[in-house]
Request: fold
Amino acid sequence: MSERPHVLILGGTTEARRLAALLDADPGLRVTSSLAGRVAEPRLPPGQVRIGGFGGPEGLARWLREQHVDALIDATHPFADTISSNAAKAAAEVHVPLLALRRPGWVAGPGDDWRSVDSLAEAAEVLPSLGERVFLTTGRMGLGAFAHLEGMWFLARSVDAPLPPVPPRMEVLLARGPFTVEGERELLRRHRIDVLVTKDSGAEATAAKLVAAREAGIPVVVVRRPPLPEGVRPAGSVAQAAEWARARTGRRPGDRRGTGPSATR
Reply:
C-alpha cells in the first residue's frame, strides 16, 4: 500500500512551527505536530496537531508504529529533557530515524557578567551573593528551587501562572515574547532588578533581557542546557531539519509527487 510519508514533530517552539509550515507545504508529506499541552493557549502550527503526552517512551513507540511514522523530529524546548529522552528510546525501539532541532545557545560577549550553572537549584545557591531583587525568566516550572530564599524579592515572568511552591516574596508577570530591549530596560529599572536568572534557551525573541542586563551592569545567572541523549543527531536550523526530513522520506525540495519511495510499505 502506498501513502504519504509521515513526519512527527515534537513541538512547542517557534522553530517547530516554522518547520511544520515548511514541511506541510509539501503535498507529498503528512506532517503531525505534537504539543505537550502545558500552555493554556498554544500557538498552533500548520498541519495535523495532537495535544497531550504519549505515556512515556512505550506510549510514544506505540504511536509511532500505529501512525506509521517515517521520521521523528524533536523540536521541543532545549530544557524539555524528559520528552527528548523518551523520543530517543522510542525511536530506537521502533527503528524510526530521529533528529533533534536545537536553536544555537546564547554566547556571552564583551561587558556581560554571566555565571553559568547546571540547575535551578545551583542558581538558587549563588543568588544571595549577587543581589536581592531577582528577575526570574526560567518559566513557570521549577520555581520551588527558590522557595527557601525568604529574604529575597522575585519578579517571575512566564506565559502561564507559575505552579507552587514558589518564593514567598514574588510578583508574577504574565507575558509572551518577543520582547524589546527598550521594554526590558524599563522593566529592570521599574522593579529595581539587580540580578537576572535565565535558562540558555537561545531564542532571539527573549534575548533582549541579556542586552538590557549588560547595559545596566546586572549579573546574569545562566542555567546550562541538558545534553542531548547519546547518539541523537542535532540540527541547528529549520532548513537543516527540513532537508533531513526530506532525505529520510525520499522527498526533494520542489518535488510535487504525491508519494516518496519510502512511503511504500
Observations:
- The first strand starts at residue 6 and ends at 10.
- The longest helix spans residues 81-94.
